[in-house]
Amino acid sequence: MGDFSSTALLELVEAQHGVVTRAQLLDLGLSVGALNSRLRRGALRPMHRGVYAVAHTALREEGRWLAAVLACGVGAVLSHLSAGRLWSMSAVPVDRAVHVTVPGADRARPGIVAHRAPLTGADVTVHRGVPTTTPSRTLVDLADVLPYATLRRIADRGVRLDAGALRRAGARAPNRRGRGAIARLLGDDELRTRSNPERVLRRLARAAGLAAPVVNERVVGSERDFAWPGQRLVVEVDGHAVHAPRGAREVDHERDAELVLAGWRVLRFTADQLEHEPAGVVALLRRALAR
Questions:
Q1: pTM of the prediction?
Q2: Residues with Cβ < 8 Å from 273, sequence gap 6 or more?
Q3: Between 3.40.50.970, 3.40.50.620, 3.40.960.10, 3.40.50.1370, what CATH number should domain 193-290 receive?
């Protein structure tokens, strides 16, 4: 690392994805003259005012994001499109600008989009070494800037929807442009499904005009795929069909037995049935719900 031989500095640069601030360098004992000398020699590369990349380090996306957060000062966190990318949310559009939320007024910086908003401790965390908004708060922010169809794909594919956390995050950010989209997400029970066969069954039931079930909720001590409490009916979707390991099938039978002993009925459908016999699946569901 050449001049950068301090153990504390090495550890800091590694933890911060190859970026460091002027204040941090001075705190570690580097003089202003030594800092300027490293800048002239190219050992430090300016990224934003007072934020540098260590020249030998291969800077990844996390380093670029963290540099923008550090440039915006205390309380700043990655947010919006950039936070969505950090959380690996599928369908989030790529934006070369870095989006950061700051607690107060902030001056313009090239390459950074600063959003001013108050954040509570429940809205922020550190992910992959970068201070950022939580997944739920990120969805609330994205609802302001993306169409609902894109937001729904993000919630469906990129992060498991935690309805309670999303509802609380929305309540902490009232009067936002995207509050209607968040309310719509919270009312969309298909987002609570966990697999494609589950989504297929939910769509079949909706298209047939059947009563809406509760999805992935606990019934008799365990989480069930679908439940109609009024009819005391549980439906489970088996993606593995007949080729599941014996142990997995035995667990399924034990779970079914618990329901039957508690006065519930259980139907199981395989992914193959849903794909090739949808009319038969709907007919069985209709008969079970009519009882």
A1: 0.66
A2: 280, 281
A3: 3.40.960.10
